[in-house]
């Protein structure tokens, strides 16, 4: 509920009806309504038969997403006795999940964060309280037995590892941050820690993320400071102290035009969202107070639409805002309200959405015993492809290899069109740690012919085994 105050021009002979003045009407309309094609975006939870039920979501109090999704799988951190594990399900395996469903269970301590590789839908990284980071390969149809042997194990942190983030454009580059206040950049294909930042942060790191092309890192810390870092040099480019006055965790990420959005708390424990210009960190471009709650707000940004979604841990709602170049920069759009509190959430990449239904975002909300997909939709009458809603978006192809990136080469994201939908492609089956550990999610004739050759060999081996068994049976029969 809001009021608009304005003064009318005086009634004169030349202007007997001041409200009919066209200039005044335009001014009034601008004050009351801001034009936006996303003003009517609405969220909707899917029906029970499209949810994932009877899953024991982790009870850990760590402020990470606890969930990661891509066009093939949804992964969730679950409760486990005597170690840490997470479950990986094909997207179409909805309904009740059997208690005996196999998990990824190689960690000796609880898993704190998981994230799928953006360049290969079958590869996922996990960080744990056991101080290690592990890289896993998930078979195309999902797990049929528990997975305890990682493809690569990365050891370099001295305390628990709670933050993981794959490089958006460089192949096989992973950033990890631990409770030892250290940020490490890994060349996963070699299993090596290439950059180690152990003097930048003096306290616990709350969040760490890349910008759009991976040329900068943004971190938020318990010392209430936002830092923009050069990832290869490990140096601080810009920093802002006391971005939020409260003592609770701050989350931050890059948004459009290299601006920075942060969520935190005021001194009176009111939740806040702020937008910053890293070239002038003195004052925020805008600072808005939302409500009073203890749940940490996890931000998710869609660069294609300019919408940021704020999901609170323990909340039942998702707020969404549009970021523009005009003051107040962060414009409230609406809010989705569910029934159950959120313990975590996964955010589907754009290439996994249903474009024919005008779906612009999909979240996978974790509750006490289930995972509920929530779809954000722009209401449109036409079922044709809406080009204004779906500009070319980031695809799965990396633009630079790990060695080249560490040597100073940056690469812009390779964009794809969603006009005909995105088809999940096949991948190379064999992984070699020292050479080409994590192949990209691309298919080629060479890949298929290699798979066919492997199948032929397996068939020949089976034939040979069958012939040997036939001989043994004949020999036994002749003896009788």
UniProtKB/TrEMBL annotation:
WD repeats: 104-146, 154-196
Gene3D superfamilies on file: YVTN repeat-like/Quinoprotein amine dehydrogenase
Biological process, per Gene Ontology: actin filament organization; cell migration
Coiled-coil region list: 452-479
GO molecular function, one term: actin filament binding
The DUF1899 domain, residue ranges: 31-95
Keywords: Coiled coil, Repeat, WD repeat
Top-level taxon in the UniProt lineage: Eukaryota
One family name in Pfam for this protein: WD40_4
PANTHER family: CORONIN (PTHR10856), CORONIN-1A (PTHR10856:SF18)
Annotated family: Belongs to the WD repeat coronin family.
The protein, known as: Coronin
Species of provenance: Merluccius polli (Benguela hake)
Lineage of the organism: Eukaryota, Metazoa, Chordata, Craniata, Vertebrata
Gene: Coro1a
């Amino acid at each position: 509920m809001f009021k608009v105050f304005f003064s009318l021009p005086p009634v004169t002979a030349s202007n007997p009806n001041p409200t009919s003045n066209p200039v005044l009407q335009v001014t009034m309309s601008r004050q009351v309504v801001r034009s936006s094609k996303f003003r009517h975006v609405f969220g909707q939870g899917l029906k029970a038969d499209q949810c994932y039920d009877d899953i024991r979501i982790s009870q850990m109090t760590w402020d990470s997403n606890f969930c990661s999704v891509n066009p093939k799988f949804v992964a969730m951190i679950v409760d486990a006795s005597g170690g840490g594990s997470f479950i990986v399900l094909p997207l179409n395996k909805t309904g009740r999940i059997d208690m005996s469903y196999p998990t990824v269970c190689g960690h000796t301590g609880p898993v704190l964060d998981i994230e799928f590789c953006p360049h290969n839908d079958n590869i996922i990284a996990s960080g744990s309280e056991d101080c290690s980071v592990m890289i896993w390969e998930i078979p195309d149809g999902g797990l049929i037995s528990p997975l305890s042997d990682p493809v690569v194990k990365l050891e370099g942190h001295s305390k628990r590892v709670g933050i993981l983030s794959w490089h958006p454009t460089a192949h096989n580059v992973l950033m990890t941050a631990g409770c030892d206040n250290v940020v490490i950049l890994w060349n996963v294909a070699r299993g090596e820690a290439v950059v180690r930042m152990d003097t930048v942060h003096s306290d616990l790191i709350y969040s760490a993320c890349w910008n759009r092309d991976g040329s900068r890192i943004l971190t938020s810390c318990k010392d209430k400071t936002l830092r923009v870092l050069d990832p290869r040099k490990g140096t601080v480019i810009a920093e802002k102290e006391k971005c939020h006055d409260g003592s609770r965790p701050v989350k931050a990420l890059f948004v459009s035009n290299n601006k920075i959005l942060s969520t935190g708390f005021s001194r009176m424990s009111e939740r806040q969202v702020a937008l910053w210009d890293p070239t002038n960190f003195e004052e925020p471009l805008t600072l808005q107070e939302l409500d009073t709650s203890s749940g940490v707000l996890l931000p998710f940004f869609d660069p294609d639409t300019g919408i940021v979604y704020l999901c609170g841990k323990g909340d039942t709602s998702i707020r969404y805002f549009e970021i523009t170049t005009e003051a107040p920069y962060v414009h409230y759009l609406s809010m989705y309200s569910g029934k159950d509190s959120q313990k975590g959430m996964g955010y589907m990449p754009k290439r996994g959405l249903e474009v024919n239904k005008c779906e612009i975002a999909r979240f996978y909300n974790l509750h006490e015993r289930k995972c509920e997909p929530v779809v954000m939709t722009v209401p449109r009458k036409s079922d044709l492809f809406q080009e204004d809603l779906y500009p070319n978006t980031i695809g799965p192809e990396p633009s630079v290899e790990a060695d080249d990136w560490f040597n100073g080469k940056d690469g812009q994201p390779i964009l794809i069109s969603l006009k005909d939908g995105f088809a999940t492609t096949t991948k190379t089956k064999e992984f070699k740690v020292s050479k080409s550990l994590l192949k990209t999610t691309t298919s080629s004739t060479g890949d298929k012919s290699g798979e066919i050759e492997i199948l032929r060999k397996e068939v020949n081996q089976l034939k040979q085994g069958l012939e040997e068994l036939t001989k043994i049976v004949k020999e036994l029969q002749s003896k009788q």
